[in-house]
Amino acid sequence: MNTVLQAQGLGKKYGRRWALTDCDLEVPAGHVVGLVGPNGAGKSTLLNLAVGMLSPSAGTVEVLGAPAGSQQAKVGYVAQDTPTYARLSIADHLRLGRRLNPAWDESLAQQRIQHLKLDPKQRAGKLSGGQRAQLALTLGLAKRPDLLILDEPVAALDPLARREFLQDLMEAVAEQELSVVLSSHLVSDVERACDYVIVLVDSRVQVNGEIDTLLATHYRLTGPRRDPKDMPRDQFVVTASHTDRQSTYLIRTDQPIHDPAWTVTQLTLEDLVLAYMGRDVQPERPVLEVQR
């Protein structure tokens, strides 16, 4: 299967307010995908629709080739607040996971708990935020999913706990060959853990593709002031700024830049993401998808 998550015209309405509208998206299999965007962009709503916790108000969403919500046994999910049952012990959580998931890997679950040096008798309510997040990740991984969806799983963690969580995630991906969708507002987390990125702004995908390819096809051009209409047709202008004498463009192009008037610099992932987050959403433009 080439696509693990596909949305077409997807929308979700709460009362009179649309939290997600006209969302078209394809998430390729075999990647750790970073879903980034500003607060209110619709990231959590999209992921809740994908796991079947919400029903669409418009459009469709499929997961692993079937309607969302029909593949629970094959999808692992860690919600934004890494929910656990405060009164249940760690051992209780593992027993619950074993009863609810037909492909449950008890050996994996026990090995992770031992590796994390957690006491199986300890109640979840007594764990630190990082330990609760690790317990939730253990439950998601031990069900042996084909797709693991993580909604801001480290947002409330301190830097050390966040690093440990992401390191454990990357090791699990390597061992289990998982497809992962990880939403985050921290570009540094996406840069550390992901090889594919999707930028979502006002529920619309602004750009998506493999991170290495995106960085190799985006440039900052600085030089004498130039009108956007005079830019070559093979250079898609993402953002532009001007002074009286100088222009600065962030462009996407697959072609070499030969114009000696420009000073050309490469972008960081943060540069790229912030540029797409800051530009006006223009639904009539095609989604920019970069593939090898």
Automatic annotation (TrEMBL):
PROSITE patterns: ABC_TRANSPORTER_2
UniProt xrefs under InterPro entries: AAA+_ATPase, ABC_transporter-like_ATP-bd, ABC_Transporter_VariousFunc, P-loop_NTPase
GO molecular function terms listed in the Swiss-Prot or TrEMBL record: ATP binding; ATP hydrolysis activity
Pfam families registered for this protein in UniProt: ABC_tran (PF00005)
CDD domains named in the record: ABC_DR_subfamily_A (cd03230)
Keyword hit for Transport: yes
Domain ABC transporter positions: 5-227
Keywords: ATP-binding, Nucleotide-binding, Transport
Name the record gives this protein: ABC transporter ATP-binding protein
UniProt source species: Kribbella jiaozuonensis
Lineage start: Bacteria, Bacillati, Actinomycetota, Actinomycetes, Propionibacteriales
